[in-house]
Amino acid sequence: MISPPPLKKGDKIALAAPARKVSQQELAFGISVLKQKGFEVVFDEGLFLSYDQFAGDDMQRTRYLQQLLDNPTIKAILFARGGYGSLRIVDRLNFSQFVQHPKWLAGYSDITVFLNHVNRLYRIETLHAPMPFGFDKNTPESLQSLFDAMMGKPESISWPTQSLSRKGIAKGTLVGGNLSVLYSLLGSRSFPQTSGSILFIEDLDEYLYHIDRMMVALKRAGKLKNLAGLVVGGMNDMNDNTVPFGKTAEEIIWDVVKEFDFPVAFHCPVGHIADNRTLVMGRKVELEVRELEVCLRQ
């Protein structure tokens, strides 16, 4: 994997909205944080286009992001927010200039599309990281983890071991992201190579039966059996039916993977949560699940 050059103060960071629309007011705090950290923030009126729920129609969003990918003076692209829409434009993009001048692509949720597409097809690392739309809700530690990663100093992440976890040590390439978005990538060239990898998943506002459906689909597609390890982040604000499913999201996931022997860790501080730490996707990492503590070394 290729690691984009570390950022330094004064570098240009561009903002892009390939999915749901966003306003300048909604990004004001995030922009101020980036400037306070010493970076030049790049965007124009194209960032704030509106077409139904999207930040412009498919062609407008593609054109805007393509310009940023092609610009060698921009050292990182921070996706402003998620929502839905990245899947509609990823195959319209040309990454030939980006490959010549790699830069950090950072975001999560719907941005899982780009993180895995770039990892799988172009062998370039990406960042599963907080986005400017939510900077005002993120902990200082999670924001610092983003800047540390972009500047070439990603942190190791430690958290308490949960009862469902399976102890062990694993090394492998870190892949994954939002479970619902990964599910939408199944069968496509953007889906990550999971064999021998450490898979990370998180999700928000899903029905519990659909968590089960997605996990079973990954299993049936052979994407789980040869994992080196599994890390589960935030599984927040889950929904249930009138007739309860009967398990939590974590219990559903464990039920699907319990027949395998790789280490499994729950409640990693990454996802749709305030303390959303940054992960370097596509990087060889080490996962150690101990009796009392889990450590993910990047």
Summarize the structure.
This protein has helices spanning 24-36, 58-70, 86-89, 96-100, 112-122, 140-150, 179-185, 208-220, 249-257; strands at residues 12-16, 40-42, 74-79, 104-107, 126-128, 157-160, 168-178, 198-204, 229-236, 264-265, 279-281, 284-289, 293-297. With 298 residues, the protein is of the alpha/beta class.
Domain unit count: 2
**Annotation, overall tally of beta strands:** 13
Which of globular, elongated, flat, extended, rod-shaped describes the shape? globular
At CATH's second level, what is the architecture of the largest domain?
Answer: 3-Layer(bba) Sandwich
The percentage of residues in β strands lies in 15-25%
Unreliable segments of 5+ consecutive residues = none
How far is it from the N-terminal to the C-terminal residue, by CA?
A: 14 Å
The largest sheet is:
7 strands, mixed
Order of helices and strands: EHEHEHHEHEHEEHEHEHEEEE
Class per helix and strand makeup: alpha/beta
| Level-1 CATH class name of the largest domain | Alpha Beta
Mean pLDDT: 98
Fourth-tier CATH superfamily name of the largest domain: LD-carboxypeptidase A C-terminal domain-like
Helix content: 25-40%
Strand order of the largest sheet: 6-13-12-7-8-9-10
CATH topology name of the largest domain, in short, is: Glucose Oxidase, domain 1
Total helical elements? 9
Our Rg estimate from Cα atoms comes to 18 Å
Written account of the structure:
The chain is α/β, with parallel strands linked by helices and 298 residues long. The protein has 2 domains: 139 residues, Murein tetrapeptidase LD-carboxypeptidase, N-terminal domain (Rossmann fold), CATH 3.40.50.10740; 141 residues, Glucose Oxidase, domain 1, CATH 3.50.30. 29% of the residues lie in helices and 22% in strands. The strands form 2 sheets. A 7-stranded mixed sheet has the order 6-13-12-7-8-9-10. Strands 2-1-3-4-5-11 form a 6-stranded mixed sheet, sandwiched between helices. The longest helix has 13 residues.
